[in-house]
Design goal:
single chain; two-stranded parallel sheet
Length: about 160
């Protein structure tokens, strides 16, 4: 069941983090609030997978403060908003207006594949850090990420978008 899967996932993440913590230390990000996505992109794009497993320490340029968890949580919140910023053309809202899917026109941004790679790293980092992201994707996109076949089940009622009494 779900609780067993979650416990197993957490135990595997803990092993990876312990190994990374001994050998790599912290994953440090220094970002400007006004350019949080761009700064994060530049600093995360060339990191090795093992480096991503280190403990995250975020500092914001021009601000004093030690990251005891609060700055990292704030960074996750800010970055989640920027991931869906229409100016990057990475994601578009689906028909329901609540979930997002990859933008088929994302190639207007020459580095769109690198951006998607970094977004994946950010989402993976959030999962392993136990952080919630305000990021909701379409079911078909989740299936694609997991390598599960995408199927479409449309009821007669959904087909006509109204109830017949």
């Amino acid at each position: 069941d779900f609780d067993n899967k979650r416990s197993y996932f957490k135990s595997q993440v803990k092993k990876l983090r312990e190994a990374a913590g001994r050998s790599l230390g912290a994953l440090k990000l220094n970002v400007r609030r006004s350019r949080v996505f761009e700064d994060s992109f530049e600093q995360l794009r060339l990191r090795r997978t093992e480096e991503m497993r280190g403990r995250l320490h975020v500092t914001f340029y021009g601000e004093e403060g030690i990251d005891a968890g609060g700055l990292s949580r704030e960074w996750y919140s800010l970055i989640a908003r920027e991931i869906f910023n229409a100016n990057y053309a990475l994601f578009i809202a689906s028909a329901d207006g609540v979930t997002f899917q990859p933008n088929p026109l994302s190639n207007v941004n020459r580095e769109h594949l690198e951006y998607f790679k970094v977004v994946g790293r950010i989402i993976g980092k959030a999962l392993t850090d136990g952080q919630l992201l305000d990021a909701h994707f379409t079911r078909s996109f989740y299936k694609h990420i997991l390598g599960v076949e995408v199927t479409y089940h449309v009821s007669f009622k959904q087909l006509f978008l109204f109830d017949v009494c």
